[in-house]
Amino acid sequence: MYNQENCKFAATHEWAYIENGVATVGISDHAQHEISDIVFVELPKIGTKVEQGKSCCVIESVKSASDIYAPVSGEIVEVNQAAADNPSIVNQAPHGDGWLFKIKMSNPDEVKNLLSFEDYKAKI
Amino acid sequence: MINTYPHNVLSIEKSVKGRRGVKVCTPSKQAQDILPSKYLRKTEINLPELSEFDTVRHFTNLSRLNFCLDTHFYPLGSCTMKYNPKSYDVLCALDNFSSLHPALPEANAQGTLQIIYELDNMLAKITGLSAFTLQPSAGAHGEFCGALIARAYHASRKDKARTQIIVPDTAHGTNPATAAMAGCEVVNIKSAANGKVDLNELQKALSEKTALVMLTIPNTVGLFEEDILQIADMVHQSGALLYMDGANLNALIGLVKPADMGVDIMHINLHKTLATPHGGGGPGAGAVGVRQGLEEFLPSPRVICKDGKYAFAKKSKLSIGKMKSFYGNIAILIRAYCYLKQLDGESLKDIAKNAIINANYVRVKLKEYFPAFFDTECMHECVLTIDKTKMPTVKTLDIAKNLLDKGFHAPTIYFPLIVPEALMIEPTETENKQMLDNFIEALKEIYNKALHTPDVLHDAPLNCPVKRIDEVSAAREPNLRWTK
Q1: CB pairs under 8 A between A and B
Q2: What average pLDDT does range B341-361 have in this prediction?
Q3: Domains of chain B, first to last
Q4: In A, which residues are within 8 Å of B472 by CB distance?
């Protein structure tokens, strides 16, 4: 759905699929693999203002609890309740049904701070 | 002998209607005769109905399944599972301590107050700090107390902008949680490639908003912060305070005084370093010490000594208040007191030296098998990892479960987070060379299986009463209540 090649990546392993000023956010396939079986997803509340690089939700796996950082600044306009109800979809389809939330971007210039898929792949 | 008792059958599943341990006389009135109907239970109470003998056997058999410090080597990293002398259990259970009502007047509690007063002074001597509170119940409670002291200190100077707490990624996981609980913003900083504090990152994070910098020393990868004096200078220059998480004090006790490193506030996990029983959630004791000038902020009441009599001091205006009812976990404090009475000066140094030697012995002996993530001398614990190129299908979890089968408690795994597939081993000073060699041998055997027959590792443990647990389902669909 949100093919990796069409996404921008944060060094902290979140991806953002940007369309019409809205960024759909999830975690990378590498990240879901590293943290292993996800058992709990705490989504941000709709309406929350988030800042690029600042923690905005938490994912717990059998190994650890990991902060998820907003890849861009803006306002949370939609969350994927299905991921909270059934966290395993984040493992199964991190770039598809396992997306986490959508941010209405307040500063589109920030996208230049993110990595392309190629650059992200080279980094991990 | 293998314990064949059916341990997985709950007492309530053994229940037989009408079976009793004790015959209770028939009450002259029923509950419904005395209580308003809204307080009456609507559903069955579902208590097990067993004879006294059945009950004794049930719990005795369960207790024999324990995998604990008194039965097995327990190298649980970061937890300092050292031997807890049994004589202290007897001493703290003496009638004069255990029968003392916590609300007695000071004059009738002189012995207990004296112990609190003297333990406070002993901890001050060991750390070089000025004064301690013994109220906090455990390490994280101590951290919270420390964070409140830092806030109270800045508030007393009308420095209200200081709302951030800096925590490196090699700190204990409770540190950022504490900072958040204390109402502060957590600022994480990445450690340098050598696993220590990155001074540039620290400098960037420090500002007029910084209230406190929380360092775990040695840090969670078992390394000493060699730049600590420079770090302390940087922190103080920025106007912030330096907090030391002293959970790993076992590596430093007797060798280094935290006050000499520039620490302003710290906690000591008495239940770790000072050998009191812990695990299973407590009780513990997280004594908090402060440098000169911060005593007024300590929790109240503090115990003072005047003309040979012990008493509670009047609450200072700046005190953060009470952290715990009455005297704190007094039975733990008495044990810690006994430990320090027995060991001082040179023998305290031996604790740290032997803890460091034991951890390095394990690290070096296992170098070819499970390499240390940071290949350098460690302090009281070593953090190993697995070479994925040699054993792609094996996880640290498999190693841990196989250790159980070999009669060793698993080390801490997957922590600290900066080490992939971490295996965090803290032998402590109270294990001997034979035990360490047996443990090393067990890990070498597991290593060989991981190379040649990795599939057999995935089924472990096979010798334990409970086999491989489905942790994912347990966490995703927790079933916490027994139902008929």
Answers
A1: 19
A2: 94
A3: 11-63 (no CATH), 100-342 (3.40.640.10), 351-475 (3.90.1150.10)
A4: 37, 39, 62
